[in-house]
Design goal:
Helix content is 20%, strand content 31%. The chain has 553 residues and is an alpha+beta fold. The N terminus is likely disordered. Pfam families: Fasciclin (PF02469).
Length: 553
């Protein structure tokens, strides 16, 4: 039985709308349920549609296992598609060698069952039997929108359930990639300067290798075209080498040109859809762990577009039309701008935990009045244990809080939130003292609750209580005990800073801060900011004024 589903589930539709340049038309998904017929038998059952692909399966010798017990996904081109393909290559099905037939079948089969619910704008979650990922997307036609694969074929019938897997019907034959990342780059004359840089640094060879181990095979290259390099002042390779190669030997891992090229290579096969699902990606720079950041702004994919210490650093855009090129060992992208390595020294980070997009978009509340996030709210960079107790954005008004706001979090054991997780701003590699800066508030029904902090799973050594006041001691005495007043004037004992411990940040990146309640129940837990201060810098000064400015006192 066939039925027409006129809409995708909301999460998938949201992702596709965010990542694809397309209209708002629906995607047609046809679901068909069979009896006990397995994949190969199903094709044979409808020779008027699929006999040509069945013949290629016969030629490959894979008919037995595709009709045996198992769990597979097959993307089967219909007869029209196969005939067009055979005409294109000038052969009949009988003239295909066994190896050619096997290659055709393997690029169309995945060893697991995948429905269209698992498709997204990017690679499918598993490789084909050929050992390459398939790139999925959406295209618009006169009859609405449909899924595409490898930009080579549309899915015209989907989610056909067979006895040993899932069948999707294509209007084209998929063709595997035949070039490595290095070969793809070299084949494009507009990458000639970057190709020479790959060769001079030795990365051409690694990008020209197809590792038999799938776990180590795939890489991603973000190439800069001659046009982009010319805009940055490099019209030939000699100019690029003169600017970056400080040692004169680009093959040295410590050479700046080597680092520049390595910074454009990422681990794994990362299509645009994969790049924007994470905020940062480890590069091949070997002198120390180095990341490139990523974000989606509207429909634009940006690299190294960061807000660092309150200041936006403009990044570069990845070209949608020139990116997502599948190679035998990964993916090739093209950037629309020149970018170099961001190397940062340890610096004081005063992390305002209320500085996140979802509250800042609520212009009638942010900086004006309190807003309680409704049950069921999802925030990109803040997670909490109990969905029934979301945080509250508190406008502090006349209270002495940085930028006159703070985040109030219902913590408690066993009720309310056992933990809260927040993604930090970018923190440069280095050793830091971590301070929890909170607005102490004690009410008549306050209870004692003890919390600990952790960075990337490493628990900090000092527990603390949100309801504790700053002791009446001198600044030096307070610091020796792990206390300070972070607001100005330095006499406000409710503006409490507690030292959580010292952390060694290994990689310049955004990190995960986790607050955990280890005993006690609810109390007003008001997080104003979290400070990361290099261990060799002044921990007490400057202090904050309510308007957000700093003052040395």
């Amino acid at each position: 039985m066939k039925k027409l589903i006129q809409s995708l589930t909301l999460p998938l539709l949201g992702l596709l709308l965010g990542l694809s340049i397309m209209s708002c038309s629906d995607i047609t998904i046809v679901e068909t349920t069979t009896g006990d017929a397995n994949l190969y038998s199903y094709l044979q059952k409808y020779p008027e549609k699929y006999s040509d692909f069945a013949s290629i399966i016969d030629k490959s010798g894979y008919n037995s296992f595709l009709d045996a017990y198992g769990a597979y996904t097959m993307f089967a081109p219909n007869n029209t598609a196969v005939k067009a393909y055979l005409t294109q290559i000038g052969k009949t099905a009988d003239q295909l060698t066994k190896e050619e037939a096997q290659g055709i079948v393997k690029i169309h089969v995945i060893r697991d069952t995948l429905t269209t619910n698992s498709f997204k704008d990017g690679k499918l979650p598993l490789v084909t039997m050929y050992g390459q990922y398939l790139l999925s997307g959406v295209t618009n036609g006169t009859n609405g929108s449909s899924y595409t694969l490898n930009r080579q074929a549309n899915i015209v019938e989907s989610n056909i359930k067979t006895g040993n897997g899932m069948l999707h019907i294509l209007d084209g034959v998929l063709k595997p990639a035949t070039k490595t990342i290095a070969q793809l780059t070299e084949a494009n004359p507009d990458y000639s300067i970057f190709t020479q840089a790959l060769k001079e640094t030795g990365y051409y060879d690694s990008l020209n290798t197809v590792n038999e181990n799938l776990d180590k095979r795939f890489m991603t290259l973000v190439a800069e075209s001659n046009t982009v390099l010319a805009q940055a002042g490099f019209t030939n390779y000699a100019q690029l080498k003169a600017r970056y190669s400080k040692s004169g030997n680009p093959k040295l891992k410590s050479d700046s040109l080597n680092i520049f090229v390595a910074y454009h290579i990422l681990d794994g096969a990362k299509y645009l859809g994969d790049i924007i699902t994470a905020t940062s990606h480890i590069t091949k720079v070997s002198t120390e762990p180095t990341v490139v950041s990523s974000k989606l702004e509207g429909q634009t994919v940006l690299l190294n577009d960061d807000i660092f210490n309150g200041v936006r650093e403009m990044g570069v855009e990845l070209s949608r039309t020139l990116s997502d090129n599948t190679a035998t060992n990964g993916v090739l992208h093209s950037t629309l701008g020149h970018y170099g390595v961001k190397l940062r020294l340890p610096i004081r980070i005063d992390w305002d935990v209320c500085d996140f997009p979802e509250i800042k978009k609520l212009s009638s509340y942010y900086g004006k009045r309190t807003y309680g996030f409704p049950v069921g709210t999802v925030l990109n960079d803040i997670k909490w244990a109990n969905a029934s107790f979301p945080p509250t954005y508190v406008y502090a008004g006349s209270e002495n809080a940085a930028k006159r706001d703070y985040l109030q979090v219902p913590m408690g054991v066993p009720s309310r939130n056992l933990w809260l997780e927040m993604r930090t701003p970018i923190i440069p590699k280095g050793k830091y003292k971590v301070w929890m800066c909170y607005r102490r508030q004690r009410t008549s029904n306050s209870f004692t609750i003890t919390c600990t902090g952790a960075i990337d799973g490493e628990t900090l050594t000092r527990p603390f209580l949100f309801i504790d006041q700053v002791p009446n001691l001198s600044s030096g005495e307070l610091e020796s005990l792990g206390w300070k007043i972070y607001m100005s004037p330095g006499t406000d004992i409710n503006a409490a800073g507690r030292l959580l411990g010292t952390i060694d940040i290994k990689t310049t990146d955004r990190h995960l801060f986790r607050l955990t309640a280890i005993n006690g129940t609810h109390s007003p837990n008001n997080i104003d900011m979290i400070q990361f201060i290099p261990i060799d810098q002044n921990q007490l000064s400057p202090r904050h004024l309510p308007d957000g400015t700093l003052i040395a006192n």
